[in-house]
Amino acid sequence: MNDQPDSPQVLENARVMVVDDNRVNRHLLLALLERGGVRHIEMAEDGNDALARMDQFRPDMILLDLMMPNLDGFEMCRLLRADPAWKDLPVLVQSSLNRAEDRAKAFAAGATDYVTKPINAVELLARVRIHLQNRALLHDLRLFRERTETELALARKMQERLLPTPDRLAELEAATGVRIHAHFAPSSELGGDFWDLRIDGRGRAVVTMVDFSGHGVGAALNTFRLHAIGQQMDFTDFSPAAFLATVNKRLCALLPSGQFATMLAGVVDLAENRFVYASAGSTRPMLWAPGDAEPTLAESAGLPLGLLPSATYEERSAPLPEGGRLFLYSDGAIEIPVGGDVLDEPGLASMVAARIGETDDRRFLDGLLDALRATGPIDDDLTALVLTRTG
Amino acid sequence: MDYGIEDKDQETVVRLRGRLTFNDHGKLRALIREMLQTKAKRQVLDLSALEFVDSAGIGMLLIAREEMSNVDKLLILRAAAGQVKRVLTVAQLNKIVAIED
């Protein structure tokens, strides 16, 4: 913000158009504005003349008379406001009409402010300055918002790029016999959810899913930190509990007080027909075999990451036969309000049961997400992934 | 979320009501300041009327625990029920905060 909105530059740089059919009035206003420090002033003789000059002069403000031949001030103001480019332009009406009805009519036509003739020089300049300052502030805010939006969009693309690509997922399916379909939706531009699929040194599929506390930019930055930590980890013979313990130690050193993450890390063991996993307070994984009527809710108690450096994690496992499926989700899916309570895991499990026979991943997840959205507002990041054993 | 403080001889009891989420950051900060000014060593958060807590809310409870411990006070989470109790249990927070029924 180079231009301080309260500096004299606001008036010096401002472009003001004076619209009045009376030549004496026009010159009076011109002299007045010049004395106040305004340098760029355009004069128009009536509404038509003013509208014709708009695009070339591009005013920051208009001083508008109401009673004019050809096109009067009311009608000109209405036409001006119909153009989106000028909908926020300050229009200060200066008129000898001083009945309340005239003022109301001017404001209804789109005027920003109103002063009555005879003009009080000090008051007019004060009002001109206020409107120009507001406009400069609004302009700065708009630029700032645009820049923030651009940067957030960029950051979001970067975050999405941390996730496995469809090509990578196809490659992993061929190598590990595990297919994954995921839905990833931050509640704002950026979120604190993150998931990954890798292959360990024994050719097994390793899946991780994390949810940092809070959401927005702060939580999103932590997903980048976690990704960096993941790149340095040993995946030769994946042990979920040891993995969580190591990540926890690293995060304890990084996360400020009050921030933490819940995480699930697991590996699909084809030989044992099991999903072996450890949880740091994640949601409960759901698993089912072909023909099951409802999913099994597996245990997930565990201290979240980033709270206690010495924390250890329990290794658990659940059956996952060929054709079996695993459903993982962030807490956004179970914290949807239902009556006085929340949906919670059993509520979500019954939604899964309702479409348990749907073998198409996309239709399964889309159907589930539609059901969730129909349940209530989702105001947290929402990640859901369905993993299927194809081999 | 709103709260009521009852300052007793042996302990300060703060009753939290409603939903504790991301948006209550300012309120919880103010509450922590109030708790720091009371005399009792035992600072009890009575959660029986708290209906919901999200991850940011848990984070704020952990900050409260730390702030109390910095001045040699003890934070106790008491009588959690429903979703709040389930969240505290799944996160095994009894490992780092005193939790009472």
Entry summary:
Chain A: Its EC number is 3.1.3.3. Chain A: This is Sigma-B regulation protein RsbU (Phosphoserine phosphatase). Chain A is an alpha+beta fold and 391 residues long.
Which chains share the greatest interface? A-B, 28 and 22 residues
CATH topology of chain B: Transcription Regulator spoIIAA
Provide the domain count of chain B: 1
* Beta-strand content estimate of chain B: 35-45%
Major sheet of chain B: order of its strands? 1-2-3-4-5
State mean pLDDT of chain B (0 to 100 scale): 92
Main beta sheet of chain B: 5 strands, mixed
List the total number of helices of chain B.
3
CATH homologous superfamily (4th level) name of chain B: STAS domain
CATH class category of the largest domain in chain A: Alpha Beta
- The assigned CATH architecture of the largest domain in chain A is 4-Layer Sandwich
Residue share in helices of chain A? 40-55%
* Average pLDDT over all residues of chain A: 91
Using only C-alpha atoms, the radius of gyration of chain B works out to: 12 Å
What is the class of chain B in the CATH system?
Alpha Beta
